[in-house]
Amino acid sequence: MTSDTLVPTFAALGDATRWSILVALGERPASASALAERLPVSRQAIAKHLAVLLEVGLVEPVPVGREVRYRALGARLTQTADALAKVGAAWERRLATIKDIAEGL
Fold first, then answer.
1. Which of 5, 11, 35, 66 is the most exposed place for a label (fewest CB within 10 A)?
2. Where in the sequence is the domain holding 87, given as residue range(s)?
């Protein structure tokens, strides 16, 4: 993933309400109205948060009759976690090298 996709994803995940929505959708798909019943946020606010999550590819709408339910998409979260793991691994290698040098002194 590039910073063009990571930065908006982190921005979306950085909001506590959006994170709560994503966690709820990870349990089971739900409509904006159902999410508003579970969370202390209006349906209109939920819809705006869902639009942000949809834009970065973390959720997708699923039409069910006249209702639209949203479900979490694990692929983007996996890609984001993989990108973080690469950064973490690079830091671990650097720290190990510094430790080896320090112990050799």
1. 66
2. 3-104
CB contact burial 32-50 (16+ within 10 A = b; e otherwise)? bebbbeeeebeeebbeebb
List the CATH number of the domain containing 32. Answer: 1.10.10.10
What residues have CB less than 8 Å from 54, skipping those under 6 apart?
A: 60, 61, 70
Q: Which of 26-30, 35-39, 96-100 has the lowest mean pLDDT?
A: 96-100
Give the C-alpha separation, 25 to 34, whole Å.
11
Number of structural domains in the chain: 1
Please state, in angstroms and as integers, the Cα–Cα distance from residue 97 to each residue in 55, 86, 91, 92, following that order. Answer: 40, 17, 10, 9
Locate 26 and state its tokens: 């990870």
Residue position matching structure tokens 């590819």: 57
pTM (2 d.p.): 0.80
Q: What is the pLDDT of residues 33-87, one digit of tens each?
A: 999 999 999 999 999 999 999 999 999 999 999 999 999 998 888 888 898 898 8
